[in-house]
């Protein structure tokens, strides 16, 4: 799961980024409305956490532009204003939820899970390919009834390949799904993650196989 965090308070942003990463989420952090517009251009994110007051503009104005353009990515608005009128303005302006500062990180996580459980998101809440089940809300993978325990990067690789099973996933697209904008990525890091994931799937008796398409990317498909 990939989250766009738009927050200019660096201490808060650092704490949120660390907390979300511990829940197997990739976080792209930006500090201005201009950066947020650029980061959201390609619809890479499953949800957006948007501060209302940004150095170069009002977060709700940015949200209104996104909604006018047809962008349906779920958005939680963060604000120092907690009055009813402010909350209503946020919700009526296109926010899926509205959270007043200060707040507990666990509350933000709960609200993220809630908006991703809503009808539009439920269509892909559980991905099944063969005997593999991947719950995108709880970030859990199973082979049959047995839990498949994976570190965060391998879990993200698996999710991305499962979502596009039967199709070649370009190496660049897989890296975008697994690494945030600020992550330093070694040239062979992705290959290492895929290799380890492949061994674990084989060891668990998964009914899928991951093929390397040399010079292009990877392909996951059910075993014949």
What's the structural blueprint in terms of helices and strands?
Layout: E1 2-6, H1 10-22, E2 26-30, H2 33-39, E3 47-51, E4 53-54, E5 57-58, H3 59-68, E6 75-79, H4 84-92, E7 97-100, H5 105-116, H6 119-122, E8 126-129, E9 132-135, E10 140-143, E11 146-148, H7 152-163, E12 168-170, H8 171-178, H9 189-203, E13 208-213, E14 217-222
Offer a few descriptive terms.
9 helices, 40% helix, elongated, Rossmann fold, 14 strands, Arc Repressor Mutant, subunit A, alpha/beta, 224 residues
Describe the structure.
This protein has 224 residues and is an alpha/beta fold. It folds into 2 domains: 1-114, Rossmann fold (3-Layer(aba) Sandwich), CATH 3.40.50.2300; 124-220, Winged helix-like DNA-binding domain superfamily/Winged helix DNA-binding domain (Arc Repressor Mutant, subunit A, Orthogonal Bundle), CATH 1.10.10. It has helices at 10-22, 33-39, 59-68, 84-92, 105-116, 119-122, 152-163, 171-178, 189-203; strands at residues 2-6, 26-30, 47-51, 53-54, 57-58, 75-79, 97-100, 126-129, 132-135, 140-143, 146-148, 168-170, 208-213, 217-222. β9 and β10 (140-143) form a beta hairpin. The longest helix is centred in the last third of the chain and has 15 residues, at 189-203. It is elongated, with a radius of gyration of 18 Å.
């Amino acid at each position: 799961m990939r989250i766009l965090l738009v927050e200019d308070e660096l201490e808060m942003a650092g704490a949120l980024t660390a907390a979300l990463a511990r829940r197997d989420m990739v976080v792209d952090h930006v500090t201005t409305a201009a950066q947020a517009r650029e980061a959201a251009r390609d619809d890479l994110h499953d949800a957006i956490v948007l501060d209302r007051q940004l150095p170069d503009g009002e977060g709700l104005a940015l949200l209104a532009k996104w909604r006018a353009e047809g962008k349906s990515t779920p958005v939680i608005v963060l604000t120092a204003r907690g009055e009813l009128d402010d909350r209503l303005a946020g919700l009526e302006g296109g926010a899926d939820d509205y959270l007043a500062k200060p707040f507990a990180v666990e509350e933000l996580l709960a609200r993220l899970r809630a908006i991703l459980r809503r009808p539009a998101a439920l269509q892909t809440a559980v991905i099944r390919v063969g005997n593999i089940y991947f719950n995108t809300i709880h970030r859990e993978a199973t082979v049959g009834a047995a839990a498949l325990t994976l570190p965060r990067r391998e879990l993200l690789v698996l999710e991305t390949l499962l979502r596009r099973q039967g199709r070649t996933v370009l190496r660049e697209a897989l890296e975008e799904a697994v690494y945030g904008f600020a992550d330093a990525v070694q040239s062979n890091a992705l290959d290492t993650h895929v290799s380890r994931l492949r061994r674990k799937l084989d060891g668990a008796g998964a009914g899928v196989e991951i093929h390397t398409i040399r010079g292009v990317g990877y392909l996951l498909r059910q075993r014949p």
